[in-house]
Amino acid sequence: MAKGTAALRNRPETRRQASKGGDRPGKAVPPAPAAAAYDDPVIALHLGEAKLSPAMEAYFRRCQEKLGFVPNVLLAYAFDAAKLEAFVAMYNDLMLAPSGLSKLEREMIAVAVSSQNRCYYCLTAHGQAVRLYSNDPLLGEHMVMNYRAARLDKRRRAMLDFAVKLTNEPWAVEEQDRALLRKAGFSDRDIWDIAAVVGFFNMSNRVASATDMRPNVVYHGMSR
Question: Is residue 22, in this structure, part of any structural domain at all?
Fold first, then answer.
């Protein structure tokens, strides 16, 4: 399958062992083996590669130009052209299209859900997006670790409480939960959008965990 951006590797350096002879040069110690690249391979399955459509080739180029890399989730889906295009279309509609939810709020939902599911890929990639959209690295850390520790307004706290309940206890969601969202200022269309983002990331978290999907290492240092 396609491989993502190679991780930075430790530069092998020759260390010298201190000798008992004071200033006498010590014996050279062989360098430690370089650590394995954290995002190579992108997933643990061997699925091959499909031929990208012209639209997807152009999309990958735009990612490379805008971000400096192609997100590994796209490379993971590249074994099946139809699945890749469906994933991209759904993602872009949910996360980037006009909505009563801001892009930041949708990313906050993504991270709060992924925190419940302990999804390494999505916590890394979307934690960076929260830092980027909020210009607040601390908010990104709060979303990853425990959204309740963040000093959120009532609207966003209600939104994330609902997202987490829908993730952990979907059978327990009742009209009173929707009423709390309306009271916090969300329209019924907004409630649909919250639920759709929650559903998408619960699916994505499970696929990422099942395949050991690895985020691009560059995400870790971005927007800090």
Answer: no
